């Protein structure tokens, strides 16, 4: 059985970082990255390792020491480590990412051809100025109007802080009670107060109070978000349309014989206790009060005309009464 074998003259060496991201705390003092070599291990070669080209020697970039140096692999050597110093500046600036890379002159093959890169991520160990947003309570109003949501920093910072505010539905709804529009707020260096805004859609309809929320996301700058959501309460400032009262007798007029009695219905739009009076108690008498809706009880005293008035103090109704003489009895024969 025949086979084939291929022999490659001057096989390549391959170099890559051992991981794409190296994490380090700001107070760690240093961070070490590793280059891994594979392929041809028989040759020695040099690579250019650099971070922040042309940066002044000895000056830190944020918290990381920049390096520009030759990295030499000896024959048979498979790894090489490089250590950066990390500076704890005792100032909150937020996390930072730093690109690092090696460049080959052709002696090694990289992930990206002649270049391979990775990232050093420095995690800040200080807390930033605290950012908070206030809850607000405002009248709903009868037309469109804009309300402010105050933003505060617990102390000034030396960099600009940008805050993006977005309203969210609660019992108040976007498009009905407020406009779904984001709002940007900016703290210039040294400022500790700012505000974002939401436009309210007022109306003249009586309704319960409503709420919605406003979130601060994203926030850019050296701050720590301590309270990132505000609650807005819209207080209704419209008067309720109360039902109007009305009183009526049923029937509106009545004829009864003297010496007799009767009842008449009192209708009311709103339940109430009404006062009853007779224009001539000698003709007809009535109870001094009655519930409405309900009935009024009458007693006919003698023939004549009289009126009964019912009132709850705001409205009244009148019943006309004719009292007739009692029928004569026929004399016995």
Structural summary, described in words:
The protein is mostly beta strands. The protein has three domains: 13-123, Sandwich (Immunoglobulin-like), CATH 2.60.40.2030; 129-235, Sandwich (Immunoglobulin-like); 247-324, Immunoglobulin-like (Sandwich), CATH 2.60.40. The protein has strands at 13-17, 21-25, 30-39, 45-50, 68-73, 79-85, 96-103, 115-123, 129-133, 136-139, 144-153, 161-168, 183-187, 193-201, 210-220, 223-227, 229-235, 247-250, 253-257, 261-268, 272-278, 284-286, 289-292, 294-300, 304-311, 316-324. Strands 2-8-7-4-5 form a five-stranded mixed sheet, with no helix packed on it. The radius of gyration is 46 Å and the shape is rod-shaped.
Summary, kept brief:
This protein is mainly beta and 333 residues long. 0% of the residues lie in helices and 53% in strands. Residues 5-9 have low confidence and may be disordered.
Question: How do the helices and strands line up, and which of them pair or pack?
Answer:
Elements: E1 13-17, E2 21-25, E3 30-39, E4 45-50, E5 68-73, E6 79-85, E7 96-103, E8 115-123, E9 129-133, E10 136-139, E11 144-153, E12 161-168, E13 183-187, E14 193-201, E15 210-220, E16 223-227, E17 229-235, E18 247-250, E19 253-257, E20 261-268, E21 272-278, E22 284-286, E23 289-292, E24 294-300, E25 304-311, E26 316-324
**The CATH homology group name of the largest domain:** CalX-beta domain
Q: How confident is the prediction overall: mean pLDDT? A: 87
Helix and strand content put the structural class at mainly beta
The top level CATH class name of the largest domain: Mainly Beta
End-to-end gap: 159 Å
